[in-house]
Here is the input.
Amino acid sequence: MGATRAALSRRRCELGLTQEGAAHAAGVDRSTWHRWETGQTTPRPNQRRGIAAALDVSLADLVPLLEQTTPGGTATPPAPPLAAHVVLPRPSLDDEVESAVHDRRRFLILTGAALTTALTGTAASPLASLSGDGRGSKLDPAVLQWLEEGVPRLRRMDDHVAGEGLRQVVLGQLRIAIDLLYQATTTGEQEQRLLTVISHLAQLGGWISFDEGWHSSAQTLFSTSLKAAHTIPDPGLIANTLAAMSLQSALSGHPDDGVHLATTALEHATDQSPLIQTMLATRLARAHARQGDSSSCGKALNLAERHLDAAPSGRDAPEWIYYFDPAELQAQAGACWVDLGQPHRALPVLHTALDGLSPTYVRDGAIYRIRTATAHIDMGDLDQGCTVLTDALPLVHQAKAARPLEDLRALHTRLDPRDPHARDLNDQMHALIG
Here is the structure.
């Protein structure tokens, strides 16, 4: 018998996973996972992130699990380690949520009839079986208050502190809330408050996961948020989660899904704050822009402006949409026109957005400047594009977030390294994205 990966098999068993379950979580066939464990094949570098997620380990900790052990117990040298990127398990409310959205087919099911059912409330609560069942002690009101007060702080931290560290904090609090829902004895009012916390944290965790490029985990978390929001029910939270799902779909190559999600959210948010409707209209515009539909994008942006004009000066809106203001609308409009290849329309609104953006929003500052540099370069103004890009690079480095790096990578391919204006920038960009 040849060398096997006993440590890989042992870790899977510790988590109570079958080979089929582990393979599903990693996004591969069961036969592929079987060949990995038996040493017949070696996981490719682009497959290791999925394996790490399935086994709840970092990429660095995955390395020894991939060592092959001979019958005599001698380990063969592992493949060179990849850069460490901690992956946490996808928290879930029940088995349905745990396996809800691991591939595109299931995601489309979620966005079709099942999604409409969730919004209209015609189906039985998907979380009904998770009501406090009295197995544990009474929920301490102070703990619940602590969780509730932490949500807006974590959301604002995301404006300033990007990356996996914050994601771990959010998912840790989400697990606490879920454990309490499972185990503590709660009143009906406490249960509703717990579900609200769970919806907020799952949506935020999904957003950060999307921002960091963990699209499968983001979809599962968004599914969790959607189910919890439906159970409450809270149409505003449903709309917020749908908005995030729409943007993720549009930016990950599925703009038709993004249009469907944003349209559905708008149809079911007619009684929500004008500010919420403004945000939803911009998500619809972004999806239409990714479709290349300039006319529909323009109509959606006009709708957003009308809703924003109708928003009361006192901001009669929920706390979670604090970030949306006229500058944010300009930023979203600029992104649309950049995607549509209309830099002459993008530049004025992008510069307006930058003027109104807080300097403490490092990640957004990086993203908006990269878009502005792209628009200048598309206009043929390489000097100004490089000037704006020079301002963006330190922010990209400071933010340490995946999305601005992806934007930078896309722009990097368009600069001619032989051009003296771009040569030094190319070296700096390569150092960041290499």
The first helix runs from residue 6 to 14. Residues 76-134 have pLDDT under 50 and may be disordered.
